[in-house]
What does this fold into?
Amino acid sequence: MAKIAKRVQKTREGIDPTKLVALTEAISLVKDRAIAKFDETIEVSMNLGVDPRHADQMVRGVVNLPNGTGRTVRVAVFARGAKADEARAAGADVVGAEDLVEIVQGGKIDFDRCIATPDMMPLVGRLGKVLGPRGMMPNPKVGTVTMDVAGAVKASKGGAVEFRVEKAGIVHAGIGKASFDAAALEENIRAFADAVIKAKPAGAKGNYVKRVAISSTMGPGVKIDPSTINAA
It folds into this structure.
């Protein structure tokens, strides 16, 4: 325990939790403190001036990160016939219809992202209680209910990240790995922030982006000056 406490203390050295820093400096601070024995995920968190309990203040969308996420994404596709074949050819890990619904209902979810053709949604709808809480329910607003299953599979594999605001008005996502160079992380963070800003709902009043921070899996959070990522 003493070793762990010492390591945690070391990662926090040089970080003022009350200070806002420029994006480039924040990335450097987080990368330098990602000292775990595995390649830590870098996550960005944005506090928004919205109340998602109101329908006109919901924030959700999808963004294709220019440098990918650095993680292997397993994709499931609910489709039949030619569309199922297209999904397999595009690299989907799991493809099926009624058989896949049974597997998921049985508690086996061996995938990270879920895509469906529109005609499959009455069937997939039965899985709302299973997929919904995991944020994996296919939705046309984020491109996961589509006839272009091949395009959706490739986007998911290539770095497409879904985001959805939580009850406290926070949106967050993994946008890369500690092994990424600083320029790649900066590009990804800017792309994510830009997508969140463009998803600003009509009901949002006042200051939309309140706080932005980044952290690694095991490291401390670093607060970013929103103006340095055009998120003011």
